């Protein structure tokens, strides 16, 4: 196995996944052909016949993919289209696409796929392109925008300090952060921040990576797709490391910020614990806003979003044209929403890089509140 030890520092933006939805059988078209046989489309007989025809179409699609000889496999109620055929050295090949009937919309088909050009040129990718072209009346329902940060190991200390949303944090066996979710999976937008290096190294057939590689992934659904640039900027303004030792915080405020960070590191949402105490939530938000912040990497990521904005827009347009995907959201994107310079992120967030002398963020975000309190006491004794 090839081992890749070094990489230049890099922040790159790309489309990671797209989701296309379409009707298996258009209601109007079906009714136009079958209305002579039923009193109305809403009758039990018509609905049963319509649902039966939908299942016949879905069964034909499943059989079609099953015949690909190792490039597809059934998973739950859907179909996984594999980027390459499994071999002795590659027992778990990468998924190119997942195709399913949505659980509560059996009349629809949903295709979740990786649109990257190189992947689409594989044998499975060519088959997927033909399949997508055959489907009518399709449109995007989800876009995953990935910001890859390579060669910046300090990003492990960053967290998403967006309030009012659910959060989940997962650590490895040594207690190091592995994955952070901000926002519900079914909501219109969700942030996933995870260790891409670990994920890549779990695939035995790939190169072993020894450098730091983290991915900040923004998942957008529905109307949020149309403003992906602005959505990324709005979320990045809350992506930083709070300085618990900020000189402009009182001792009491520092202790509260310690408690907040300690709870976050243990997968607890501070604001969930004060759902009935509006004043407590308001005070904590004020402390977060007041504290000095280290957000230099967030600014680099925001700049990368701005610089790649037109390329991403053009890529979406090409995909729409290649597969005849109707997508009003993509065609009405306002370029100004993404911002034009790095200054836009600063103005949007109100967050500035921490450049104060003597009060820098040198301590990792993973810390013990007990140790911090002991350190504060020791400092007071030394001063006396």
Amount of helix: 25-40%
- pLDDT average, as an integer? 79
- Beta-strand proportion: 15-25%
Shape: globular
In N-to-C order, the SSE pattern is: EEHHEEEEHHEEEEEHEEHEHHEHHHH
Structural class of the secondary structure composition?
A: alpha+beta
The total strand number stands at 15
Uncertain spans, ≥5 residues at pLDDT below 50? Answer: 328-341, 353-371
List the total number of helices: 12
Lateral arrangement of strands in the main beta sheet: 3-4-5-6-2-7-13-11-10-9
Radius of gyration: 25 Å
Biggest beta sheet summary? 10 strands, antiparallel
Distance between the termini: 59 Å
Describe this structure as you would to a colleague.
- This protein is α+β, with helices and mostly antiparallel strands.
- Helices cover 38% and strands 22% of the residues.
- It has twelve helices and 15 strands.
- The strands form three sheets. A ten-stranded antiparallel beta sheet has the order 3-4-5-6-2-7-13-11-10-9.
- Residues 328-341 and 353-371 have low confidence and may be disordered.
């Amino acid at each position: 196995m090839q081992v890749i030890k070094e990489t230049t520092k890099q922040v790159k933006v790309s489309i990671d996944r797209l989701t296309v939805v379409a009707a298996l059988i258009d209601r109007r078209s079906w009714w136009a052909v079958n209305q002579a046989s039923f009193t109305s489309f809403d009758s039990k007989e018509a609905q049963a016949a319509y649902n039966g025809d939908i299942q016949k179409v879905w069964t034909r699609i499943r059989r079609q993919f099953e015949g690909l000889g190792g490039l597809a496999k059934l998973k739950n109620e859907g179909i996984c289209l594999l980027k390459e055929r499994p071999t002795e050295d590659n027992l778990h090949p990468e998924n190119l696409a997942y195709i399913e009937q949505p659980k509560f919309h059996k009349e629809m088909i949903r295709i979740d796929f990786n649109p990257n050009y190189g992947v689409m040129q594989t044998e499975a990718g060519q088959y997927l392109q033909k399949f997508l072209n055959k489907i009518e009346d399709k449109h995007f329902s989800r876009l995953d925008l990935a910001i890859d940060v390579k060669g910046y190991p300090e990003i492990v200390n960053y967290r998403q300090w967006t309030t009012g949303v659910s959060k989940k944090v997962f650590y490895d066996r040594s207690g190091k952060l592995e994955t952070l979710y901000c926002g519900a999976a079914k909501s219109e937008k969700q942030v996933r921040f995870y260790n891409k290096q670990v994920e890549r190294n779990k695939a035995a057939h790939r190169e072993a990576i020894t450098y730091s590689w983290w991915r900040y992934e923004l998942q957008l659904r529905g109307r949020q797709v149309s403003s992906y640039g602005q959505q990324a900027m709005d979320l990045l303004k809350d992506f930083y490391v709070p300085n618990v030792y900020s000189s402009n915080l009182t001792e009491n405020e520092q202790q509260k910020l310690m408690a907040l960070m300690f709870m976050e590191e243990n997968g607890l949402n501070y604001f969930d614990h004060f759902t009935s105490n509006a004043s407590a939530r308001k005070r904590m938000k004020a402390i977060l806003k007041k504290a000095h912040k280290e957000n230099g990497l967030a600014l680099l990521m925001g700049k990368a979003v701005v610089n790649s904005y037109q390329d991403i827009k053009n890529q979406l347009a090409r995909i729409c044209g290649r597969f005849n995907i109707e997508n009003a959201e993509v065609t009405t994107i306002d370029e100004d929403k993404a911002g034009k310079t790095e200054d836009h992120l600063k103005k949007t967030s109100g967050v500035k890089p921490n450049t104060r002398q003597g009060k820098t963020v040198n301590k990792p975000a993973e810390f013990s509140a007990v140790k911090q309190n002991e350190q504060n006491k020791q400092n007071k004794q030394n001063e006396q």
